[in-house]
Amino acid sequence: MSRAQHERARPNPNRPLREDLVLQACLEAYGGVRREGRLSDRALEFVLRRKTLLYSTERRAVAERVYALLRRQRTVDFLLEHSQHNFETLDGTRQDVMRLAASRILHGEDPNYVSRTSGLSGTDLTVLDRLPDAAAELDALPDAKRFPIAASLPDFLAEKFRAVFGKDASRAAEAMNERAPLNARVNALKGDRDVLQARLAAEDVESTKPTPLSPLGITLETRLNIFSLQNFKDGWLEIQDEGSQLLGMLVDAPPTRVVDACAGAGGKTLQLAAQMKNRGDLHALDVDEGRMEDLRKRARRAGVHNVRTQIIPPEGPEAEAALAPLKGQADRVLVDAPCSGTGTFRRKPDARYRLTPESLEMHVARQKALLERFSTLVKPGGRLIYGTCSVLREENENVVEDFLSRHPEFTVRPVAEILGAELGKKVGPGPFMRLAPHLHGTDGFFGAVLVRAK
Ligand SMILES: C[S@@+](CC[C@H](N)C(=O)[O-])C[C@H]1O[C@@H](n2cnc3c(N)ncnc32)[C@H](O)[C@@H]1O
After folding, report:
1. Among this protein's residues, is 389 annotated catalytic?
2. Is the CB of 268 inside a 6 Å radius of any atom of ligand 1?
């Protein structure tokens, strides 16, 4: 790294932001999501990689502002459309300048400062003065109309949130619109989290505290780039939400034969390898070659060497043939199924706008098919663990119930029997794990443990 690059990467919270550069980068990244259909993290990465002149504080501001707007996109559009009658006919860049400014005000920034720092030549920002009236209009709407707009959810999803959370739907959606904490899991192959906390303190990480539910987790607050920490490079920690850690804990993997059927980039695979104390056979399967490659890199960093990765075809006789050697062989099979991601809106705020009733149906059909296929790998007496990062019943309880109706050889094992009564009660109620940000501070996760008769 050159001295100039090092200087730019060094966080200095007292240096004023160069607002014109920040705004330009925000417009490019937000435009990439809204108009070119890019995923938010990819759009930001794409833009920020080229903005080599931005300081780290400015990069952070760009990411925060774009995410904040994506979280509140429907609300912001309502407010602007009701503050300026011709808003919808303005050119895209002007609209986005106004959206970014309105979102900053909505998130508590001083309106005068926002107006002063948001103007691109020719953009009239007097619209911002009328936002409070539009907000009052929104508040006055009947609840059924107000909720989807205030929560920035598509109508069909707002309805589903009501079905799941009832009178807590607003609180649940609000919590999904907060920034997620930065959580990590200690690599138990290296040591415990007290030791990790001490090591991070020695590396100048400002604050770490234990996560309340997962005994493996810490929440970090730091302006440093996690990936440049020596502890990260040495495999002491993995970035992983606390809810995801709890789902991993449900597997309770013995050091024998375990299958992680939708292993992806290996968030849970590495946790399972640690549960297995690096012994036995851990089969990590996925259809995505790129993610499997990431998994292999992460496994090397974590010092994991009981994992075998296998790319499998997504369906059809080839998929069945690829799985044949594992049929009836596994003590544990984790199906961490692809899903709507409704539990992870805090981290992927744009995901909600891509979801449709049709795509949800597609997820459900695939979840049922995956559970069916991978259940055949469980040996008698073994366990099938089904999980999603969705809060919707369609993808969770209903998929499990559908499976059980066709498979009397499987029965539900209450999660409290795996996690212990105290923790089990916190992640319940009922036999399944059902996590949500407003209740647990985690991402939304579902987990079910099914046991195959001997
Ligand atoms: C929720 S993600 C898994 C996350 C991962 N377990 C972790 O903890 O990081 C779901 C994964 O399922 C994979 N997948 C999709 N269809 C599949 C199939 N037919 N067989 C196996 N994996 C599949 C996707 O590629 C994706 O990586």
Report:
1. yes
2. yes
